[in-house]
Recover the amino acids of this structure.
């Protein structure tokens, strides 16, 4: 007897099949439409990890991973826009500051979508966004290099570093306002659809009650650093979709055999990655996590390359799912990259046995 899937897994599959996958090539070229965001909001998936008391599902981490894999496999751009939301939700869930009562409910219930602008904190000791005390609130100056979901998000969680070397996270409305100016949407090799901009901050002022987290930089970084060492479920989603495509090539036993072999590798690397992600101490087994993440990237690149090869010249058509998955996979190689992840990945590529003569 098989157990039925978690209701949010069932909803993710329905959203993927009915909304995301059928228009993935068009969305890739034209941008994530507001209608897809409305569908994501209605699905309940924005509250997958949020506390039940605030309208969320507080689902196990395995469910959050599986739903992420399903969405990313259907349309990586839509997955990426909505994945930003989960950091603000978890930040509020762990916060005891007043903004929790104002925003956690609407975010957990999917009434509002949040973006996040915090990757720049990882450039420390360089400080791309500086926060200073001013008029009983906080003043933000500097540049956010990447901000996804512009025009789709309702609010954003913005991070900078204070004069006392604290990481400070505060919410503001996701719109142009005094002291906050977006660049035009970036044209990228992949994920242009995610409506990513950079933000110029020039005296943006936010009140004390907008602050969701304030922590010594090193304390924040100690919990942030290990997170990026885990394999992303999105990598498994893109891999699985590329393998489905490969498997669907009619009358080509080689394509099917390659899909079978790579699917076995995908299952193995996913099992390993899930076991590491479920390990109770996130700061332990870092080298193993990095090796597993790199293996996940290797299997993904093999799968997306195989899908392109199997499609021949037609794979170059912008309407072809093979080229879209290949470009989405390229993006996932650098998403959330830290110095440690970069070192591990480059090191592994430099020691590829198959390339030696
Ligand atoms: C399309 C897109 C959308 C994004 N959207 C968001 C968003 O909405 N919110 C958000 O917060 N972030 C977002 N990001 C940021 C994303 O997570 C970053 O790409 C990732 O963290 C890497 O940052 P970077 O490339 O800007 O950093 P970089 O500083 O260029 O480098 C990445 C890492 O490698 C290290 N490094 C760089 N060069 C060297 C070197 N020569 N030697 C040793 N180490 C080095 C750096 O210290 C850093 O840790 C987005 C990125 C992309 C591509």
């Amino acid at each position: 007897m098989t157990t039925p899937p978690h209701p949010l897994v069932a909803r993710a599959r329905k959203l993927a099949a009915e909304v995301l996958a059928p228009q993935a090539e068009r969305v890739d070229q034209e941008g994530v439409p507001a209608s897809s965001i409305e569908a994501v909001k209605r699905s309940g998936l924005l509250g997958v990890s949020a506390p039940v008391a605030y309208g969320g599902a507080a689902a196990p981490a395995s469910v959050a991973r599986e739903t992420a894999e399903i969405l990313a496999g259907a349309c990586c751009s839509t997955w990426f826009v909505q994945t930003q939301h989960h950091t603000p939700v978890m930040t509020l869930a762990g916060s005891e500051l007043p903004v929790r009562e104002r925003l956690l409910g609407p975010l957990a219930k999917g009434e509002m979508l949040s973006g996040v602008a915090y990757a720049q904190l990882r450039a420390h000791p360089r400080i791309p966004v500086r926060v200073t005390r001013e008029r009983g609130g906080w003043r933000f100056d500097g540049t956010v290099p990447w901000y996804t979901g512009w025009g789709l998000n309702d609010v954003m969680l913005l991070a900078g570093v204070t004069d006392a070397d604290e990481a400070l996270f505060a919410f503001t409305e996701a719109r142009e306002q005094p002291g906050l100016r977006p660049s035009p949407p970036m044209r990228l090799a992949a994920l242009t659809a995610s409506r990513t901009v950079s933000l110029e901050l020039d005296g943006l002022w936010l009140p004390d009650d907008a602050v969701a987290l304030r922590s010594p930089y090193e304390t924040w970084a100690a919990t942030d650093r290990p997170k990026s060492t885990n394999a992303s479920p999105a990598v498994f989603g893109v891999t699985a979709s590329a393998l489905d495509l490969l498997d669907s090539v009619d009358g080509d036993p080689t394509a099917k055999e390659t899909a079978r072999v790579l699917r076995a590798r995908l299952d193995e690397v996913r099992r390993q990655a899930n076991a590491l992600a479920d390990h109770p101490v996130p700061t332990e087994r870092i080298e193993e996590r990095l090796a597993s993440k790199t293996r996940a990237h290797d299997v993904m690149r093999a799968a997306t390359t195989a899908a392109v090869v199997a499609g021949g010249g037609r794979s170059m058509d912008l309407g072809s799912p093979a080229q879209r998955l290949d470009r989405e996979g390229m993006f996932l190689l650098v998403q959330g990259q830290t110095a440690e992840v970069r070192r591990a990945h480059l090191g592994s590529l430099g020691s590829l046995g198959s390339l030696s003569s």
Remarks:
- The beta strands are 114-117, 129-134, 137-148, 155-162, 166-173, 180-182, 196-207, 211-216.
- DSSP finds 13 helices and eight strands in the chain.
